[in-house]
Write a structure and sequence with these properties.
Elements lengths: L2 E5 L5 H7 L3 E5 L8 H12 L5 E5 L15 H18 L3 E4 L2 H4 L7 H19 L5 E4 L13 H11 L4 E6 H6 L5 H5 L4 E6 L14 H11 L4 E4 L6 H15 L3
Helix pairs in contact: 3-5, 5-6
């Protein structure tokens, strides 16, 4: 059973509910976790949302580095602890670790050291998320956005190494297309898939371009995936695009 969501600001929840979406996916950074006053003011918007906030993305603010010489371990630990509590309170199921700026390996910094730092990060998040009902999903990003983890198989390699039930992997059709990643990877890594992001040509709304959706759906169904599918894209005409894309997604996934 698939459920369909849209990546947007919390203020759009009512409209997305009226359009027929199952949930909304918001940016975790929009909670302003490191500012107690703003966080206290923002949290009720998510907890009382008319449409469930079942997923979050944009885990870290860009200045909070997770690899490289500027890693502030104490700040990271505080942030992750607050995130785990907030996600649990809101009732989120998945939170996406994309954050390309945060995880980009700086020039001159060894890849091996970066991978070790990222593994420590995943272990820390896994421990904090234990018992919360929230799963971290590692998002592979194309090489224009980061130089660490650019494919589903790479993300799975990290998830396997950390080997924690709260750490899984996301497949994003846009990033897969940018990297020319084979759709077979959805089947090969089926045990690790926890969340899906969709877009179409030019990173616009699903159904507006030439992405091979029939092949993508065939591979995803062959993987046995059942769960949340979020559109994460640029929108030209919000109401029309969102309504038409939801109809397209339901049709192409034979909802």
């Amino acid at each position: 059973m698939y459920t369909f969501g849209w990546c947007s600001e919390i203020q759009q929840a009512e409209k997305l509910k009226d359009l027929g979406f199952d949930y909304i996916e918001c940016a975790l950074v929009s909670l302003n976790l490191e500012n107690e006053t703003e966080y206290a003011a923002r949290l009720p918007l998510f907890m009382n949302s008319p449409l469930p906030v079942r997923a979050f993305n944009i885990f870290f603010p860009g200045d909070l580095k997770v690899v490289g010489p500027e890693v502030d371990q104490e700040r990271l630990q505080r942030y992750i602890h607050k995130a785990a509590k907030a996600l649990n309170q809101v009732g989120a199921k998945n939170v996406v670790l994309g954050s390309g700026r945060s995880r980009n390996i700086p020039e001159g910094w060894e890849r091996n050291r970066s991978e070790e730092q990222f593994m420590q990060l995943l272990s820390c998040i896994g421990e904090e998320f234990a018992g919360t009902g929230v799963t971290l999903v590692i998002e592979p990003l194309n090489k224009k956005e980061t130089n660490l983890i650019n494919s589903v198989s790479e993300a799975v390699r990290f998830a396997k190494q950390v080997n924690h039930p709260s750490v899984r992997v996301l497949a994003d059709f846009y990033h897969m297309d940018e990297e020319k990643e084979s759709l077979q990877t959805l089947i090969d890594n089926k045990a690790w898939l926890q969340h899906i992001h969709l877009a179409d040509t030019g990173r616009f709304s699903p159904g507006t371009g030439q992405y091979p959706y029939e092949q993508f759906v065939t591979a995803l169904k062959a993987s046995g995936y059942e769960g949340m599918i979020s559109a994460e894209c640029t929108v030209r005409d919000p109401e029309t695009d969102q309504r038409d894309s939801l109809a397209f997604m339901k049709r192409v996934f034979a909802y």
